[in-house]
Amino acid sequence: MSQARQARALCSALLVVFVVGLSLATLVVHGQAVHKEALVKINLVWLKVSVVVPQELVATKEYSIPVTVRIIEVDGELKVFYLKGIRILLDNSLLEYVPDTPVLLRLGEVQTLEVKITPRFFAQQMAPGDVKDSSMRIDISYYSEVVSMDGRLAVDSGYYSVFASIPVRVVAPRTYVYVQPSLTEVYEPYLVIFDVKLWVEGEGFIENARVEVSGIPVQCYLLTTGRVNAGETKIVSTLANITQLGPFAKTRYSAEVKVTAVTPWGYVYTYNYPVTIEVRPLRKAQVSAPALAVADALTPVTITLTPPQESGESLTVTAYWNRQLVYSGGFSPTIYVALPEGEGELTVRVESTKYTPATASAKVKAISVKPRVSAWLTGSALQFQAAPFYPGSMIEVRVLDSSGSVVASSMYPADTLPRRTVELEGATTVGVSGSYSLDLKPGTYTITVTYNSKAGSATAPPVSYQVAPAGPAVLGPLGMLLTQPILLAVVIAIPAAAAVILLLRRRRT
């Protein structure tokens, strides 16, 4: 009996030495992780607990910490022992893991609980690029019933701190978020478009970015990017359709674009961009153009605006033929456009600093027509007409005498001559007209008029013109007398002589 007691005392002494050694915990480093073990006694139950903890926790990763528990001895009879959960403390962060059902432990069996820790747990309140050294504490939650050696039932539950301080380093990567918003206004329909460009530089990634547009009725006020890695760029867009808003549209909006980007550990980048948007009044345009026109010649196009042009309002007009620019200049109710040969769509756009741009279109077919010119006389002036009017064309008038020599000539740039609308071969186009004053010496002349254009030359039928020589003057009787002094004297003398003779006869009687 005494030998048995001595043997038990010896075993107890060896066990105490073993416990004291393990209570300091065995530290084994495996690469980037720390493997720790501890022997603890909870309510007469001896447990061996081991854990593997990374030495460095990077805030873009999630880690799994395995906690392994095994009952190696019981000072009495084990009724039940449940492992209810794991609690991990890191600085001010607390994480509790509770399995779906308590884990039943039996003598000699091994049970492992995997606890996942995320950056939001171990790196909260850290800014990008921060590094901190900390310590981790691991507790186990349990429930046990044990019958002691003296037959008493001991029931116990609660938390037991197995590892009080495990050193770890927490690193927040250099994750930098850049944002560039832009606003674009387009018309017909009238749209206000918000584009937000977001990109990440440095290292790591962001979990998500939110773009919120407020203060203006956009079609979608909340947009998200999802995950964006370092070196990646994403663009999100939304718009307000002012045209479709109709009576709901205002003339001014105080809008704001708010961008928030969240890192894996919960750090939030926040950007706010307020903007004032002035909405222009809507304007409509109508275009009237001939269905058939002359290619490369000027074609009259009539523009009607609603509301009309206001006093002092500056307007510019551009015209496109099948998306090719054919006209650009100031506004006029009628503009003249040269169209290439073929069939297509003429689009006219009127822009103003006060109203929205207005666009209207018309289908036009342009055909080739030969140039023509005519000339005729009205008194001492030559009248001429030419059509179609091609920009840059010239009209030449030449006067030849009876020997064929040019005695007078004149060149008329067609751009400087009066214009009028004419019909040629069923096509509506523009013609020009002018006059040439004939100040010539007596003689017979031939006048030619030639129209030189990019489409070729045309000459009008020659016009004959004659200037008569100056003849002798025709005088009346009184005029002849005044021009002949002798005859005048005779005429005066005869009545005077008759009067003298008559006077002498009266004296005699």
Uncertain stretches of 5 or more adjacent residues: 1-31, 473-483
The CATH class of the largest domain turns out to be Mainly Beta
Mean pLDDT: 88
CATH architecture assignment of the largest domain: Sandwich
Shape: rod-shaped
The helix fraction, in percent, is 10-25%
CATH topology of the largest domain: Immunoglobulin-like
Query: What is the percentage of strand-forming residues?
Result: over 45%
Number of helices: 5
Give the C-alpha Rg: 56 Å
Count of separate structural domains: 4
N-to-C terminal Cα separation, in Å?
230 Å
- How many strands, which pairing sense, and closed or not: the largest β-sheet? 6 strands, mixed
- Let me know the number of strands: 37
Question: What class do helices, strands and sheet pairing give?
Answer: mainly beta
Q: How do the helices and strands line up, and which of them pair or pack?
A:
Blueprint: H1 2-23, E1 26-30, E2 33-42, E3 45-54, E4 56-58, E5 63-74, E6 77-90, E7 93-97, E8 103-104, E9 110-117, H2 119-122, E10 131-147, E11 153-171, E12 175-186, E13 191-202, E14 205-206, E15 208-214, E16 222-224, E17 228-229, E18 233-241, H3 242-245, E19 252-262, E20 268-278, E21 284-288, E22 292-294, E23 298-306, E24 315-321, E25 324-330, E26 334-338, E27 342-352, E28 358-367, E29 372-378, E30 381-387, E31 394-400, E32 406-413, E33 419-424, E34 427-437, E35 443-453, E36 456-459, E37 463-467, H4 477-483, H5 485-508
Parallel strand pairs: 4-11, 22-28
Antiparallel strand pairs: 1-2, 2-3, 3-5, 5-9, 6-7, 6-8, 6-10, 10-11, 12-13, 13-18, 14-17, 15-16, 15-19, 19-20, 21-23, 23-26, 24-25, 24-27, 27-28, 29-30, 30-34, 31-32, 31-35, 33-34, 35-36, 35-37
